[in-house]
Structures are given as structure tokens and as C-alpha cells.
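User: I'm putting together a teaching handout on how multi-component assemblies are represented. Below are the sequence lines for each component of a complex, exactly as they appear in our records. Could you produce the 3D structure of the whole assembly as C-alpha cells, so the students can see both representations side by side? Please keep the chain order the same as the input.
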Amino acid sequence: MLTAILVMAGLALALGVVLGYAALKFKVEGDPLVDKIDAILPQTQCGQCGYPGCKPYATAIAKGEADINQCPPGGEAGMRALADLLGVEPKPLNAEHGLPKPKSVAVIDESLCIGCTLCIQACPVDAILGAAKHMHTVIASECTGCELCVAPCPVDCIDMVPIPEKVDNWKWRYPVFSLKQVA
Amino acid sequence: MISKLFKFHGGVHPPEHKLESTTGAIRPLPLGSPLVLPLRQHVGNLPKIRVQAGDRVLKGRLLAEAEGNISAAVHAPTSGTVVSIDEQLIPHPSGLPDVCITLQPDGEDAWLERKPVDWRRTDRRVLIASLRESGIVGMGGAAFPTQIKLRPSGEPGIKVLIINGAECEPYITCDDLLMRERADQIVKGIEVAQYLLGAERCIVGIEDNKPQAAEAMRAACSRSVIKIEVAVVPTLYPSGDARRLIHLLTHIEVPSDKRSTDVGVQVFNVATVVAVYRYFEFGEPALSRIVTVTGNVRHPGNFEVPLGTSVAKLLEAAGGALSDTNDLIMGGPMMGFSLPSSQVPVTKATNCIIAGAPKLFPALPPALPCIRCARCAEACPVSLQPQELYWFAKSDNFEKARDYQLFDCIECGCCSYVCPSHIPLVQYYRYAKSEIIALDRAKQAADLARERNEFRLARIEREKQERAAKHAQKTAGTKAETAGDEAKKAAIAAALERAKAQKAEVVPQNTESLAPAVQAEIAEIDARRGEALAEPEKAAQEKQES
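Assistant: Of course. Below is the structure of the complete assembly, with chains in the same order as your input.
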């Protein structure tokens, strides 16, 4: 009886030490779920979800505070990927947060720009170049199309221009068969 | 003659239709109408434009310069004037316009000074570097810049050089005619390529449906200073695919994630080596190519065409397309694509133009469901599982499609060709491939945006801290200043104290040495002043008392 208790206690102690050591040794910094969710989000940083960026939204989803259907730029596919990751039922995008739009880039009408730097301060990815009282311009390859620079512009010189289909970004279409009228 | 061949998996035997266009010799196409030269004629970066509208250029003049590592230059195919640089329709499956240089020929065809190179006495590296200016790309249809293929990055070097004269796709005969008529130039080109690569073995692979070409090549190779083997391979589509041909001739299977140069083999099309030879021997950059015009035209044949010539002009030279022509295909019937218009120009990759008609290519009946017969898997020369790829592509299950090696698919069309349900399998694979490429690009863009956003937040945080630190420093500074003030005040107070003490100590000395009369007078005045001072006090006292 005593031997059995001692053996069990010894085992418990030994395993406890191992587990405790492992918990310290293999400690994961941050929440891996947040990073996984953040990897799915499109990183537009537009704030349409109601959070100040993709990472805060990812954190809110991980905590269960936000729903998975609040990201219009991620679209249907993004919502499905989130549902897959979290093991929840997919649901249609919440129209309150806006509807998916074709990907666009901001274009500054440089003849109107007064150089106020307000758009530079609004851009979440530092994609606008310029200085006070100097003309600003958008670095198109860095622009996520979040539209956050449009509202602060006092002279309304920023337009969102959808990215046109060119030879280098053209995609093969899904094969479809045209219907023929027979009668 | 090569001893042994190694059959690859799958393959199909579509009707050849090669005889129509091999009845006559290669005909030159006269110049005349404006030439439209797309910048995008090759795989890789767009070249940088080096001319302006209105410039007069001579034949062979550089119009656009190779930009970046993988790129190819564009030259003027004849002398004339640059009319415009704008977007025009190009031969591309998208049917979208792209930047083109339009050249109006002046009819003189005057050459720029050509600089031939004695390649046998020049260092290989110099030669390969100079190829960057030649504009030569793979002429078999892939249009990969040739100078990159001659610069094998990985050691060990190239052991086997394979010259691709298989020309396996139906209808196309431009390489056949080239081998029949210009075998000597091909052999010279092989000698150049062998010198540049240092290959130990050179093999020319030709399908057995081109006996005249094989005979001409054999005769030319026997006259060569180096040993060149001519291998006649059985006609089986797609034996002209580089990896299939390598397997066929050497039994080397190039791993899916590696290039043929990694296993010591390099493959060039016959027309490409001719272009390389002509570049060194005569100083001629890539200005023209041989194009087969066949299908529903009056006189099918092969033409030596200046790049930029419109397809309409080419069809005209072949006697014109017949009235029931409903489609124009660039490339072969298996892998080619429909052109958006007959006005598109011939580019470096244009090996064949087929005028399509319902009698040649009857419209396929609507696709039926897949019955899992696996005939596509039997036909697939890459040993993929086309039926599985079809499910994944159809259901947008792109990750799975990638796992099943979708990107090893060479889009040869064997699977679609044998499918009893007429499913356009290759179209599904192309769709899935371009979707995956787009998703990968979006992912890269998202990663970049995340990085930039995180950097921005970190920067804002840093600036905030810096401001706070500055503020704290300033406050500390003010305190130090106040402390200094106090010291100053203390010093002033001390000075005042000192002054007071001095005042107290000092007794006026100016009354001591006066005459006694004056002294008495002063004393009297003082007494009077004392009384005067006392009187009001007295009065006030009296007032209070009363």
C-alpha cells in the first residue's frame, strides 16, 4: 500500500517536473491562433471590420469578440478560410461592414494636392510619399486600397481607381459552355 | 545513329496534317505595311524602350533594351521610321492590348553596321554576355531568353546538348523546312552552342515523320568538325517537349523541382541555334522567323517573316483564308490559342498560324460528366492524375491541386484529346494555375502590407516614446533652472543682508570735524525736529483722551 502510494507520488512529481520544464522551455510567445487568423486576413488594414487593423480584428476573433464575416476585402473566400480554421459554420458576409469591391489603388490628383500631409498620416502602410507643402504621391505597389486616405483629404484630390486587367495580371477563365437556343 | 531510345509515359497520335505545308520551299515575305513590335515577345521582364516616335532607324537598330536578368531586347526588323509607341493588340490568349513599337518601313532595308564576332577565338563569357543584346529567345514557342539558357548557374556543367527538331505538334512544319533547307546553318549553330556550353555529347532529336529533314541533318552533321548524333524518334505527341525529349534520348528524368541544367542537359530548338549562329557570324540580331501558315488557307506553306508583320498579311501571302474560316490559332491545334484579331503581329514565339474552320476542328459537343475511365492518366506524358486534378480545379480546391503537382502539367492537351466525355481538362488546369498564381501574389502583397503596417505601428510607438523622453528631459531641465533661480535669490538675499549689515555698521562721519558753532546749530535743529515730531503725537493723544 505505502509502496504504491510512494510510486504514484514519485511518478506524479517526476512528470510534474518534466511538464513544468517543458512549459518553460517550449513556451510560445503570443497567441498562435491570432497569427493564424492574421495570416488569412488580407492585410488591407482598412478598418471596415470595426477594429483599427487586421491584427486587432484577428485578436478579437480569437477572443470570440468578433464574428468571422466582418471583412469585406477578404470576401467570401476569406470568410470560408476563417470558418475552416476555427471550425465554425460559414456565414454570409455582414453587409453592415461593407461589400467586397474590386481591388483598387489610391491615385492622388497631383495638380490639386496642397501638401497637407493628412493622407500620409492616415495611410496604414506608409504608401504615400510627400512632405508638408509638397506634392504627395501614392506608391501604387504598396497601396492596399483601404480608402483611409480618401476621407481626410481637404481638397478631395484622392480617387480610388480599380486595378485594370492587363496582360501580366490576366487570368484564364473558368471553362463555361454557352447555351444554345434549340427551339 | 543513336543506339537506344527510352519511351516516355503516355502520349497521343493526333492526325498530323503536316504534308499540306511542306510542298514548297520557305518563301520570304515582302516588307511594306507597318510592323508592330510588341515589347512582350518573351518570358520575363519587359525591355526598356530606347527610341521615340519619329526616330528614323536602320535595320538591326536596338529599339528596346533587355531590362533585368530575364529579358530580351527588341530590334528594328528593317529600316524605317518609328511611327508610334502605344498599346495595341498582341498575340496573347487574353486578347488584351500591350505596349508596341510601330515601325513604318522605308523600303530600303538598309542595315546598321553589323559586327560579326570570331566566336571560335573569343572567350565564352564575352560571347554569352553579348547575347543579351541579340534579342534571341527560344524559337520553339516557349520564348525563354537564350542567354540565360547558355549560362548554366549550377555546376556540374552541361554534359549533353540536345537540339530539338522533334516538332511533334500537328500542322507545324517550320522546323522541318528549316532542317531540310538550312541544315548547314543548324550544324554551325550546334557548334557554337557546344562551344559555349562545353557539352560532351550533341544529339539532334527528329521525329520519324520527317525523313527528309533527318537525311539533310545527317548529311550536314557528317561534315561537321564535332561529333553530332542524329536521333530519329518515333512520332508520338508530345515528344518535342524538352523533358520528354531528354527522357527519350538519354533516359534522364529531370526532377520536377529542378531544371534540366541541374542534371547536365540543355535543350535548344533548331531555329534558336540558327539565330545564335547568325548573330555571331553575321552580327544579325533576332529580326525574323519562319512561320507555318496552314489550315483553311488556299496555299499553305512556310514563310520567312520579319517580326511585327500582321497575321492578316501572312494569310494573304498564303493565298488568303477560305471563306468558312471562323478562327485563327497561333501555335498548334493542341497547345495553341485563338487570336483576338488578324491584325496582331508575328512575334518571336509565333511558329504557326492555323486558319480554323468547322470542317477542320469541329466544335466539341458539350462536356459530359467524368466517368473515371482514367484514359487521361494513361495519356498524360508527365504521369500526373488528370482526373484528380480536374476535380480539384473544378471545385476550386487549389491547395489540393498544387499537392497533386498541377504545376508539372505542361498543358499538352493529351488528356483533353483522349477524354471520352469531351471535358476541356486543360482549360480547367490553366484556370487553376492562374488562380493559384494570383493567390500567391495576393499573399505576397498581404505579407508586405503586414510588414509595413507593423513597421508603421512600431515607428509611431517609437516616436511617442521619443517625444515622452524629450518631454521628461525638458521638465527636468526647468526644475534645474528653478533650482538655479533659488540660488540666485539666495545670493541676492545674502547681498542684501551684507548691505544691511554694512549700513548698520557705518556711522556718518561728516559731522565730526565741524566748527563748534555749526555743531550747536545742528543740535538745535535736531532738538526742534524732535519737538515737532513729538507735538502731533501729543495732539493725537489729547484727541483720544478727549
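A couple of points students might notice: The mean pLDDT of chain A is 90. Chain A touches chain B through 26 residues (CB under 8 Å).
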